[in-house]
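seq as requested:
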Amino acid sequence: MVFWRKKKNEAEQERQELEDKVIHQESDPALEPTIEYDADIDEDTKHQLEKTEIEIIEEADVEPVPEHNAVDDAKEDEELSDHSKEGGWLSRLTKGLSKSSSKLGQGITDTFTKRKLDQDALDELEDLLIMSDMGPKTAAKIVEEFSKEKFDKEVDAASVSKSLATSIAKILEPVAKPLDITPPKVGEPYVLLVCGVNGAGKTTTIGKMAYEYHIKQGKKVMIAAGDTFRAAAVEQLDVWAERAHCPIIKKDIGADAAAVAFEAIEKAREENADLLMIDTAGRLQNKSNLMAELEKIIRVIKKQDESAPHGVLLVLDSTTGQNAHSQLKTFKEIVGVTGLVVTKLDGSAKGGVVVSLAEEFEMPIHAIGVGEKIEDLRPFKAQDFADALIGINRD
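struct tokens:
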């Protein structure tokens, strides 16, 4: 009995140590306090310390943004993270797409176990790709190219997976383009209009992009809360602006969104900002009102700068599957979308929709998201995505 109690205590201690490590690893550095307090400090003392820190910052008249060294450190951390086997971007991408890759991988294994690639096998492969949300047209194109080299030969699951990933990467390569925020006029801010249906992840995407461009790249970024119909959208954007240490332009709920955009551009010019991101409403259930509002915003923006907005970014939720196609068609019609960000790829087994979007629309995909953390939005890379989608490791 004594031995059992001892073992139980040891196991409990190990479990607690593991939880502490996980909590430490998953904490968001952007949310960490600027002062570390002892565990037994009383609330009055803690409040006084926080007040003192704020007074010091105000007295010194220093904007509370990261120093140059902080930017360099962020870049170095990113490089280390990308090349790390555990916790790096490729690792998170593979894990995020695991729902899609496990479905595809198991299907490929079940279909191709030392058999000839005859027409029946090709038909099964096409069905498998369609079920992964690549759509009939894209699935047929991939299978047709795949069959040219392999038809009537004995194949195994591994060779099929690698060949499919290569074919998918060829479709994705032309649209894998990073967002270039260089404005056409020197000294003017790059104005980026961000669109998407409610719930697609617009606000989170803006926050993560602000963090990327300001904290990591050292750009001067401003945010405009143009979705004035939802209090939650403004509040959430406010939190992200604070995390990224970026100023935010906002008005009362129900205010004219175009007026917010107009004021934001004036402020961005005054502050010599490099990038201004303008959030917008996404109420597709009333398309005519949405169209009228967005068109008004664009007209007002052009009064400030005829060349603006310089980019129109559409945020798509991958969990909607093929419905993402209709969303893209609608927003192209309304505002002339210039690029995409696809979010929530870790939320379902519908990662194949990225391939069908690329094949049908040939619209630049600037970035993808596979989680809620601030580092879980990264530039889109064709081969990395194709490999993670199929579930293969080329190392």
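The chain is about 55% helix and 10% strand.
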